[in-house]
UniProtKB/TrEMBL annotation:
UniProt-listed SMART domains: Catalase
Protein name: Catalase
Keyword line: Heme, Hydrogen peroxide, Iron, Metal-binding, Oxidoreductase, Peroxidase
Keyword Metal-binding attached: yes
Record organism: Kurthia populi
Family assignment from sequence similarity: Belongs to the catalase family.
UniProt lineage: Bacteria, Bacillati, Bacillota, Bacilli, Bacillales
Domain Catalase core: residue ranges: 10-394
Keyword Magnesium: no
CDD domains: catalase_clade_3
Length: 495
């Protein structure tokens, strides 16, 4: 508590409040008077305390920290944050589950959000990733549907495993991500014990204005730790805030969690000749071909004083990049460049950039004006139009990205015709698992498929079998289905 004992209560307009115990009434035992303006103010403010929760990633935990460069990558990027070894930049991180609402339990089988905001001297860089290197699909049209199936059924208001697995198995490219979520890594033991990934392909631009493509990796220095379904169930029975508690308590006692940052780099030439689509979010780049290059480390060392102010009001957007870091043609990333700022305008309002956790720490000249909740003086009498005769608000052409070579006429292209190599990577992932991890994968899948119709289970078994016969056999056995009863070569109609 930071209250000063001598603090005296006022209204929001600063007028002294006479009593914080008794409302004004007509007579000793009479009804309340409408002229008790403080009572009305207090109730009205209370009614507006809840803001819309994030449509997904609603339950989360956040902390402030410091990023330190440990390796020189200036040949790839001119981003000031990486300009010299030893350089430090203040940052904020928010971790989350995806499907649960704001009051959901932490120890659920789900993807974890891994969102970082770096307050660089050329603007905020938001790295809005997950604890998985891939995602369920390649076209953003599927995104709202994913959230409809992992959230509540419109009629029962409960989780509907049948819709969930129907959707996932109608998208064979989802198997890679589904395998990760069903694996032993599907329930991290708190946010400190998981890796983070940018997942998408991004661009780095160097001082010569040359582009390379990059993927971002953040590797936990606390070690990977996971929970089994049984362990998670026991935790949830007594603690719904297990990840929040773990992160908060460890920072509070000075045991600051750390992640090392790495990049994978692909030249434009390599991207042109890459076996798969290098911008396909359902695939990783193999580390044997594109090794991890160390960049730096971040440490989370300060808990927010107020959760709502800093964590609930934090707003991340993949569109928040800085000179030296840019986008790629990944369809999913392109849609996210629109989605997040738009969601934030709905959730926090058009002046969300003035909320301290979101505000850049460098000078910024926002030309937009007015709007609800504008609290920064609104640029006073400064010029609000362009062009003008007074030299105000010119663009900065020196920050232009190199031209991006694109080809082909604009059209609606079926990504399945481009690449239907859905099962190679989930198969390789399966084969990285030891026997115990494989058995956990089978058991977790069977548990999550409880109540799902048989034809959907069979479709999943067929996909697993295509990734690796032992994967299909293991899942079938855990589901109590004789794999020999399934036509494994059956052609599946996806659309
Ligand atoms: C949150 C959209 C894919 C990571 C959100 C939010 C939206 C959204 C609207 C809520 C934002 C808010 O209210 O503040 C989308 C769309 C996607 C997509 C349209 C694909 C087309 C992804 C992917 C990742 C990801 C691929 C990770 C690689 C996150 C994270 C958050 C989030 C970490 C929570 C950010 C926070 O902590 O505030 N997403 N998303 N999303 N998304 Fe996505």
């Amino acid at each position: 508590m930071t209250n000063n004992n001598n603090e005296k209560l006022t209204t929001i307009t600063g007028a002294p409040v006479v009593s914080h115990d008794n409302t004004q009434t007509a007579g000793r035992r009479g009804p309340v008077l409408l002229q008790d303006v403080f009572l009305i103010e207090k109730l009205a403010n209370f009614n507006r305390e809840v803001i819309p929760e994030r449509r997904m990633h609603a339950k989360g935990s956040g902390a402030f920290g410091t990023f330190t460069v440990t390796n020189d990558i200036t040949k790839y990027t001119k981003a000031k944050i990486f300009s010299e070894v030893g350089k430090q930049t203040e940052m904020f991180a928010r971790f989350s589950t995806v499907a649960g609402e704001r009051g959901a339990a932490d120890a659920e089988r789900d993807i974890r959000g891994f969102a970082l905001k770096f307050y660089t001297e050329e603007g905020n860089w938001d790295m809005v990733g997950n604890n998985t290197p891939v995602f369920f699909f390649r076209d953003p049209l599927h995104f709202p549907d994913l959230n409809h199936v992992v959230k509540r059924d419109p009629k029962t208001n409960m989780h509907n495993a049948n819709s969930n697995w129907d959707f996932w198995t109608m998208l064979p490219e989802a198997l890679h991500q589904v395998t990760i979520v069903m694996s032993d890594r599907g329930i991290p033991n708190g946010y400190r014990h998981m890796h983070g990934f940018g997942s998408h392909t991004y661009s780095f631009i160097n001082a010569e204005n040359e582009r390379v493509y990059v993927k971002f990796h953040f590797r936990t220095q606390q070690g990977i730790e996971n929970l089994t379904n049984e362990e998670a169930g026991a935790i949830i029975a007594s603690d719904r805030e297990s990840s929040q508690r773990d992160l908060f308590d460890s920072i509070e006692k000075g045991d600051f969690p750390k992640w090392k940052m790495f990049i994978q780099v692909m030249t434009e030439e390599q991207a042109r000749n890459h076996k798969d689509n290098p911008f396909d979010l359902t695939k990783v780049w193999y580390k044997s071909e594109y090794p991890l290059i160390e960049v730096g480390e971040f440490e989370l060392n300060r808990n927010p004083e107020n959760y709502f102010a800093d964590v609930e009001q934090a707003a991340f957007a993949p569109s928040n990049v800085v000179p030296g870091i840019s986008f790629s043609p990944d369809r999913m990333l392109q849609a996210r460049l629109f989605g997040y700022q738009d969601a934030t305008r709905y959730r926090l309002g058009v002046n969300h950039h003035q909320i301290p956790v979101n505000a850049p720490k460098c000078p910024f000249m926002v030309y937009h004006r007015d709007g609800q909740g504008r609290a920064d003086g609104n640029r006073g009498s400064a010029i609000t139009y362009y062009p003008n005769s007074y030299g105000a608000l010119h663009g900065q052409p020196e920050y232009k990205d190199p031209a991006l070579q694109l080809d082909g006429p604009a059209d609606i292209y079926d990504f399945r015709e481009d690449d239907s190599n859905y099962f190679e990577q989930p198969g390789k992932l399966f084969n990285l698992m030891n026997d115990d991890q494989k058995q956990q994968l089978f058991n977790n899948t069977a548990a999550e498929m409880n109540g799902v119709e048989d034809f959907i289970k069979e479709r999943h078994i067929i996909h697993c079998h295509k990734a690796d016969p032992a994967y299909g056999e293991g899942v079938a056995k855990a589901l109590g289905i004789d794999i020999n009863s399934i036509d494994l070569n059956k052609e599946i109609k996806y659309f």
